[in-house]
């Protein structure tokens, strides 16, 4: 896990190293300062101002040097942690872009959003602690313990009893809190999923007056999150009082024991009036008190770090899960980089969406489409229409059999080449924030204004785009919320046409337009891209009845193939759909 995460440090390796270096220097200085201070306190009893001033200037110089080291450590720590988080988000986002549909199905979109935001922030905070406080605390603990042993080894034994006790307590605490935070992040995913679903479907929510239901559902999820978080935070909160109690108890023992030793072993005053110290001087006791506070403060910081790391460990595992995910669809070693024509062949194709799925979505598909043909695909919901066409551009890979385009197995093509040659207007149309022109250029980023207008005309989008305030420079809001469903579909068709593909697939992409507009689109396609193979999935028989051939699907297999007239005579499923729709049209 650590190895995978560390790949994202890259150019921030230097500040990641400099921060602990400066922290180490700061800690060394902070541990020497109390010892020098004890010497200064002992000198106060004499009359040698030269020694007092010398110690005073040394202390002042060390304090400023410690301050400078601390400031530099903080600067480099912030630079390294923020840079690491930036790279981590970038690497995750880039990884998601390589995912096949099967990989994306494994992670919900809400979960990916949580991983890119909350989880990365948690890991960033943990990294900041690791390269600064996690270096400072152990070093402060060790150096302070060493200096305490130098000052008075007998009194330093207090820490030998206290430290293992506290360490064991922290171990039990962290062991208990880790699964709690794992549960919390699952709750976050559910909450984000609920928000995303509600915002995306807000029109449906309002249409069915389900605001109260959605609010109650959201409040229920936030309450579950609150309970889990409260339980985790309550457990963490135990660390602070335990540490504080131990700190003050140790300070009290050291102060009492030290005072007793000073009084018992004090040797009075010499001839010049200077005190004759026994086993412990006042300055030594002062430094021991400081070291005690430093040791126990280090333990408190260390416990806070360990708890934070335990919390971020769950986040780190979720991030690594994305970064380690291997796309199921990759380029072959020597890919074919040219698609000759639009011929499509399905040979013994069977397919299921995941290895664990019990049921096949498609089985035994044998279908052959000549280049330039217009093919309609008809079938009920769940018959496998969309599953079939998604195999052509390798959005999914077949489970068995093969899909060939221009006589070449799609698994042997370069992915970019294949997908540039096979243009799909998916069932769920998506537009992105930007102008109409910017959205259409997703099909071809180098398309001229004339080519854009030509594609829009063929898709029957030119008229309504021209009527918009700024024409093709008009703004499309994120998700295309400021255009109707039919307008969105037509813009997506125009975007696909700009690719000038060898194969053009419509996955029920004219369902939101009226019959007349649907007819004009199909007529325009014949004239604009006559040599392109056109595959049209539709619910309306009228959308496919003039196709060169129509494929009827039922239960994940091909039930019949033929022209409109042939299917009316030979296919009961097709005839039933046709008669139902014709009767409904006559009644209307």
Q: How would you describe this protein?
A:
The protein is of the alpha/beta class. It has helices spanning 2-6, 13-44, 49-98, 101-106, 109-151, 153-200, 202-207, 211-237, 239-265, 282-324, 385-390, 415-421, 436-440, 449-458, 462-466, 485-497, 515-528, 564-570, 572-587, and strands spanning 344-351, 362-369, 374-379, 400-405, 408-409, 422-425, 434-435, 475-476, 503-507, 533-537, 549-554, 557-562. The strands form 3 sheets. It has a 6-stranded mixed β-sheet. A 4-stranded antiparallel β-sheet has the order 2-1-4-5, with no helix packed on it. Strands 7-8 form a two-stranded antiparallel sheet.
Write the layout of secondary structure elements.
Blueprint (H helix, E strand, L loop, with lengths): L1 H5 L6 H32 L4 H50 L2 H6 L2 H43 L1 H48 L1 H6 L3 H27 L1 H27 L16 H43 L19 E8 L10 E8 L4 E6 L5 H6 L9 E6 L2 E2 L5 H7 E4 L8 E2 H5 L8 H10 L3 H5 L8 E2 L8 H13 L5 E5 L7 H14 L4 E5 L11 E6 L2 E6 L1 H7 L1 H16 L1
Parallel strand pairs: 3-10, 3-11, 6-9, 9-10
Antiparallel strand pairs: 1-2, 1-4, 4-5, 7-8, 11-12
Helix pairs in contact: 2-3, 2-5, 2-10, 3-5, 5-6, 5-10, 6-8, 6-9, 6-10, 9-10, 14-16, 18-19
Would you summarize the structure shown here?
The chain has 19 helices and 12 strands.
Query: How many alpha or pi helices?
Result: 19
Mean pLDDT: 84
Task: Give the uncertain stretches in residue-range form.
Answer: none
Give the termini separation: 63 Å
Radius of gyration: 36 Å
Keywords summarizing the entry:
six-stranded mixed beta sheet; alpha/beta; 12 strands; four-stranded antiparallel beta sheet; 588 residues
């Amino acid at each position: 896990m650590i190895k995978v995460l560390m790949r994202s440090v890259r150019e921030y390796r230097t500040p990641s190293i400099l921060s602990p270096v400066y922290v180490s220097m700061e800690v060394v200085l902070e541990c020497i300062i109390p010892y020098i201070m004890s010497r200064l306190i002992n000198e106060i009893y004499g009359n040698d101002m030269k020694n007092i001033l010398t110690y005073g200037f040394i202390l002042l110089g060390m304090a400023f040097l410690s301050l400078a080291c601390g400031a530099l450590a903080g600067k480099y720590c912030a630079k390294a942690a923020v840079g690491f988080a930036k790279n981590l988000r970038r690497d995750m986002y880039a990884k998601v872009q390589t995912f096949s549909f099967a990989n994306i199905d494994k992670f919900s979109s809400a979960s990916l959003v949580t991983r890119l935001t909350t989880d990365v922030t948690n890991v960033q905070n943990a990294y900041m602690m690791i390269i600064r406080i996690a270096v400072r605390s152990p070093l402060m603990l060790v150096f302070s313990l060493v200096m305490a042993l130098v000052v008075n080894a007998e009194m330093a034994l207090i820490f030998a009893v206290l430290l293992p006790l506290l360490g064991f307590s922290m171990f039990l605490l962290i062991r208990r809190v880790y699964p709690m935070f794992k549960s919390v992040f699952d709750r976050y995913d559910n909450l984000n999923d609920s928000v995303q679903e509600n915002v995306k479907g807000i029109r449906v929510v309002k249409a069915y007056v389900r605001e109260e239901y959605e609010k109650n559902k959201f409040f229920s999820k936030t309450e579950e999150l609150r309970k889990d978080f409260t339980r985790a935070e309550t457990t963490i909160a135990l660390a602070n009082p335990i540490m504080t109690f131990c700190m003050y108890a140790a300070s009290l023992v050291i102060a009492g024991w030290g005072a007793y030793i000073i009084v018992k072993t004090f040797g009075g005053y010499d001839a010049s009036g200077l005190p004759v110290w026994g086993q412990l001087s006042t300055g030594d006791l002062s430094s021991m008190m400081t070291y005690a506070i430093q040791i126990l403060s280090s333990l408190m910081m260390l416990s806070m770090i360990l708890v934070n790391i335990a919390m971020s460990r769950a986040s780190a595992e979720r991030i690594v899960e994305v970064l380690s995910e291997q796309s199921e669809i990759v380029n072959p070693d020597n890919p074919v980089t040219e698609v000759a024509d639009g011929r499509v062949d399905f040979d013994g194709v069977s397919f299921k969406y995941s290895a664990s799925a019990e049921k096949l979505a498609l089985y035994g598909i044998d279908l052959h489409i000549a280049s330039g043909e217009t093919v309609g695909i008809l079938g009920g919901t769940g018959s496998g229409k969309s599953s079939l066409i998604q195999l052509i551009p390798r959005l999914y890979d077949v489970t068995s059999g093969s899909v060939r385009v221009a006589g070449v197995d799609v698994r042997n093509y370069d992915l970019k080449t294949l997908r540039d040659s096979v243009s799909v207007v998916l069932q769920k149309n998506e537009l992105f924030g930007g102008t109409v022109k910017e959205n259409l250029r997703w099909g071809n980023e180098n398309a001229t204004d004339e080519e854009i207008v030509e594609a829009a005309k063929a898709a029957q989008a030119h008229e309504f785009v021209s009527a918009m305030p700024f024409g093709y420079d008009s703004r499309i809001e994120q998700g295309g919320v400021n255009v109707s469903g039919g307008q969105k579909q037509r813009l997506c068709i125009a975007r696909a046409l700009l690719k000038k593909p060898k194969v053009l697939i419509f996955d029920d992409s004219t369902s939101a337009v009226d019959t007349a507009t649907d007819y004009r689109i199909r007529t325009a396609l014949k004239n604009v891209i006559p040599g392109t193979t056109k595959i049209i999935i539709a619910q309306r028989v009228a959308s496919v009845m003039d196709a060169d051939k129509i494929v009827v699907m039922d239960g994940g297999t091909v039930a019949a193939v033929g022209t409109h007239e042939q299917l009316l005579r030979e296919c009961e499923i097709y005839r039933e759909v046709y008669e139902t729709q014709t009767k409904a049209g006559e009644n209307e």
